[in-house]
Amino acid sequence: MIERPERFVLAPAADSPPGWRETVVWLNDRSAIYPRYPTRVSYCPEVNHPTDGRILQFSEAFVRGTVHIAGRNVACEMFVADGLVDSFLRQDFGFDSDGDGRIDRGLGSPEFTSAHWRPPVFKLGDRYVALEDVDLRRRQVLFRERPASNYVATDWRMGAEIPDFTFVDFGGVTRSLGQFRGKFLLLHFWGTVWERGRPPVVSLDHLKATHDAFGARGLELLGFDYAPMIEEEAVHGRAFVKHHAIDWIQATPQSTESLWEDRFRLGAAEALVLLDPDRRVVWRAGWGHPAQPGDLARILDRLLPRRQG
């Protein structure tokens, strides 16, 4: 427990994304639900602060325990802002769906999500359960069984096949992922990340260069802006695309909000997902899994041979 300024060691953790280092420290807070609570302190060495070069880092308090469902004790955890909970429907929540004893918080995992003001639904064997209520003072978490139709989360870990979905592009045309079957397709969930001061997974210039270099070799690129219920941001995203002459297909935020929040469970985080012609994930990068220089170009050069003649 931290009583005075002190140093602590950040080390790799089995349930964290590659490259992350972290530790858990115990903090005192008489104003919180508990007199002391654990805080996970994490950082990703590959992600630098965009202005002064410091390592980007953050800390979050969390509660962890088990819930008894269908004869099984299932691990779950909830990340809590400032040690307090005003509504569990806006917290990050983890659930050990596959029963391996740990919660996979990695990119594309269906075991970790933000609630987005809707009870998150998780898969547990052949059952589907939704987080119904949380009472931290009583140390109780309540789940209720839901029909399979309520579970829409997409598993987009390596090798997973992405189910079809529809969207509307900036020109008002309704499209689907299925239209791109048979091609390599790079999905870019961006949400005006370049102009919000966040360190991007890839720079706009690098993405343009990738599109120019591999578009002629068969690569398709599809962009997704994120502006939930904020019309001004949606308009701003269109202006950004026009100003920077981004010429690949862009989906409107209004048509893909559920895709971001319920299926890919991204929140507002940027991500890149490369699909093969059968819509299987062959490469991805995002928060906690930053793209290393040249990674994308190397894999595209291998997957998309140069055309002869």
3D architecture notes:
The longest helix is centred in the last third of the chain and has 13 residues. The chain has a six-stranded antiparallel beta sheet with strand order 1-2-3-4-5-6, with no helix packed on it. Strands 14-13-12-15-16 form a five-stranded mixed beta sheet. The protein is globular, with a radius of gyration of 21 Å. The chain is built from four helices and 16 strands. About 4% of the residues have low confidence.
Quick gist of this model?
The protein is an alpha+beta fold. The chain has two domains: 21-150, no CATH class; 166-303, Glutaredoxin, CATH 3.40.30.10.
Quickly count the helices. 4
Structurally, the number of domains stands at 2
The tally of strands reads 16
Quaternary state reads single chain
Assign the CATH superfamily of the largest domain: Glutaredoxin
Cα-based radius of gyration, to the nearest Å: 21 Å
Show unreliable segments.
47-57
What's the main sheet like? 6 strands, antiparallel
CATH class term of the largest domain: Alpha Beta
Hey, roughly how much beta strand do the residues contain? 25-35%
Helix and strand succession?
EEEEEEEEEEEEHEHEHEEH
Decide which structural class fits the backbone.
Answer: alpha+beta
Overall outline = globular
Distance between the termini: 67 Å
Tell me the helix content.
10-25%
Enumerate the strands of the largest sheet in spatial order, edge to edge or round the barrel. Answer: 1-2-3-4-5-6
Q: Average pLDDT across residues?
A: 79
CATH architectural category of the largest domain: 3-Layer(aba) Sandwich
